[in-house]
UniProtKB/TrEMBL annotation:
Keywords: Cell inner membrane, Cell membrane, Ion channel, Ion transport, Membrane, Metal-binding, Sodium, Transmembrane, Transmembrane helix, Transport. NCBIfam families: crcB (TIGR00494). This is Fluoride-specific ion channel FluC. Na(+) is not transported, but it plays an essential structural role and its presence is essential for fluoride channel function.
């Protein structure tokens, strides 16, 4: 039960922070959802960092990893908003921005995880 509560609390904090970042940034560009893009890339970097530190033993116990990686990063990042925003670009027939956003989100996201793992390795 304690572990579920840790995930719940971390997820709530991550969700609120995502909202505070996405709300003002998403309207800045008509065809690019900057807030969603940034929270997903930052979340990828953080999960790589947290899981890398956990693997090294620098995050002292499994409960902390649950709070940070599963809870916080899970609540902070948003695949559902990402998918909905891609749908809206397709619905508008904007294949160029759909492709750019899709490729950059996935490509930079994976690179951010790798960077997070690399940073954790060198801390």
């Amino acid at each position: 039960m304690k572990q579920a509560l840790l995930v719940f609390l971390g997820g709530g904090l991550g969700s609120v922070l995502r909202y505070l970042i996405s709300k003002p940034l998403n309207p800045l560009f008509h065809n690019f959802f900057l807030g969603t893009f940034l929270v997903n890339i930052i979340g990828c970097l953080l999960i790589g960092l947290f899981l890398g530190l956990s693997a090294k033993g620098n995050i002292p116990n499994y409960n902390n990893t649950l709070f940070l990686a599963t809870g916080f990063c899970g609540g902070f990042t948003t695949f559902s908003a990402f998918a909905f925003e891609k749908h809206s670009l397709l619905k508008d027939g904007d294949l160029l921005n759909f492709s750019i956003y899709m490729i950059s989100s996935i490509g930079i996201g994976v690179l951010a995880v790798v960077l997070g793992l690399w940073i954790a390795k060198h801390i």
